[in-house]
Amino acid sequence: MSDLLPPSATKQERALASLSERIEQLPVIYRKLWNPDLCPVEFLPYLAWAFSLDDWNDNWPEHIKRQSLKDALYQHRIKGSLQAVENAIARFGTTANITEWWQQSPKGLPHTFSVDISAQDNERQLPVLEIGTGDDVWLFCGQAIPVQTSRVYRVRFKVRQTVNSAGKSYVYAGVATLDKDFNALAGNPGAHRYCCVDGRSITTADGWQIFEGEITGEGNGSHNLFRHGTAYIRPMFIVNYNGGTGTAQVAELECWDLFENRQLVPNPRFENGKQGWSTRSAGKTVPDNAPGTIQAAAFRPDADLQDDIINAIKQAKPLRSDFNFNVGTVHAAPLELSAHVHQVVLSRETWE
């Protein structure tokens, strides 16, 4: 680029012009950044801001984020209509029956509508790792993940016990800490840093359990601190501890870098089978040798998804501002969320 600055330009102005020229030469394909299908996943939140999305959750799966972006323009055009509400619900892959007050028998409260979601109709068969070896199993992410201990990392673990042990079965989840040479670091508390869940007893009656925890900084006073000298981690979990004789199913183990809002585990939900999971924690490379089998388990919309759907309905700006949200048909009890919005929830034993 030619220097168009006048002879009187200062050194600072010429430096800024040079910097601008260098920026223009960066290999950034702007067209991709504005395409919901092609935009790199780490830039999707910025695209959501640019598209003025009313509802966004960094924990949504990638396909829901991209679909929300693709629907943004049309959703702005139809805000306030029945179609807007239907589209907001469909984005989450759920099926619902929307009934306006004058369609109900007997007629409902004027200027209201009802959203009914069947738990059974929205079941999905998803892969889980089933471990029933009659012994406790320690599994680690096969990829050694570089970390900066000054950042905050969040581990999320979803597990259930399908066959009880003769005694108690405990679960743990967190990270194994490695130095710059991929050697395992030791030191209390614990063999690893169980920042997510530290020895919780679960039974078949508990159903699916979700645990979350964070780790940042260095020290030996807590499972929420990296060991001194940590350069790499391997997210990990333990089931059927200690010497349990039952069977456990693991649905996911995620590890998020909250600074970059990026999920770090390559195969967190076993969609690629047991690939990338190992019984070994130390070393630059470890074998894929996870025990257990991949099974299919039925999942229904959990409480987080229900909240997301309710928020999406509110952001659709329906002209009739009151609605009931129903999941299933039994043990319903109204719970006020905010002015003019009510949710109907199930008791624990009737949901997952």
TrEMBL record:
A Pfam family cross-referenced in the UniProt record is Tail_P2_I
InterPro entries reported in the protein's UniProt record: Tail_protein_I (IPR006521)
Q: Where is this region: Disordered?
A: 269-289
> What protein am I looking at?
Phage tail protein I
Q: Which organism is it from?
A: Endozoicomonas gorgoniicola
